[in-house]
Amino acid sequence: MLQLSSITKSFHGTEVLKGIDLTINQGEIFGLIGLSGAGKSTALRTINLLERPTTGKVLLNNEDLMAKSENDLRKSRQKIGMIFQHFNLLTNKTVADNVAFPLKLAGWNKNDIDARVKECLTTVGLFEKAGSYPNQLSGGQKQRVAIARGIANHPELLLADEPTSALDPITKIEVINYLQKINKELGITIIIATHDMSIVKRLCNRVALMKDGLVHEKLDVLNSEIHPTTEFGKTFLEIA
Ligand SMILES: Nc1ncnc2c1ncn2[C@@H]1O[C@H](COP(=O)(O)OP(=O)(O)OP(=O)(O)O)[C@@H](O)[C@H]1O
């Protein structure tokens, strides 16, 4: 469903992505792993053009996102939800209004928004918190609201940038379980950038190990095990 082709990204003349090629299949949970600074978050953010690649192509269902007009790109982006390490909720809006936000932007009518907000909050087990404000919630609850917001517009793809890094180990498992649920029950393809190998082993079907702005090795995750073939891959998996 998604193809990244020869993606490069430079910031102020420094190339931080040096030619990323990746194909992500419909329905999989794919991990971007690697050391700090390897380019995981930047690679993830090129997928919805939050970071526009310097060169290369991003194909979503064979459509070239970089070639689209602003209006068409806005529509394509509605197929891609995103969640972040620090949740990025609107603190002055209720939980329900946070989830409603992308639907308002997409021009939904009020009745449809209300029904969809209820559905999404129920999916993440938080309907009873609809009227609360983000600062009244725990970290895990905030991330679940962010997941509800991320799936509100029926995306095909959810991008997750370090989704559990700000959470304690127990809460982390709770969030992982909800990500698994939306993948299985709603068929949403998920791409996760993370350092956290425990979530990768629990959740992902495949991973790309990144090093210095390149995909160093692509690996299958089978029965929560990853068997790298390169020296760097073996060392990384030992220490991670
Ligand atoms: N907006 C930016 N401006 C300048 N440099 C940036 C910007 N965003 C990322 N970089 C640089 O790009 C490189 C890759 O960063 P990125 O955050 O993608 O790595 P990462 O693998 O996700 O690291 P971490 O695990 O620490 O989040 C780093 O050297 C970083 O400093």
TrEMBL record:
Keywords for the protein's UniProt record, in alphabetical order: Amino-acid transport, ATP-binding, Cell membrane, Membrane, Nucleotide-binding, Translocase, Transport
Domain ABC transporter: from-to ranges: 2-237
InterPro entries: AAA+_ATPase, ABC_transporter-like_ATP-bd, ABC_transporter-like_CS, MetN_ABC_transporter-like, P-loop_NTPase
Statement: the UniProt record of this protein carries the keyword Transmembrane: no
Pfam families: ABC_tran (PF00005)
Transmembrane segments: none
GO-annotated molecular function: ATP binding; ATP hydrolysis activity
Similarity-based family: Belongs to the ABC transporter superfamily.
Protein name in the entry: Cell division ATP-binding protein FtsE
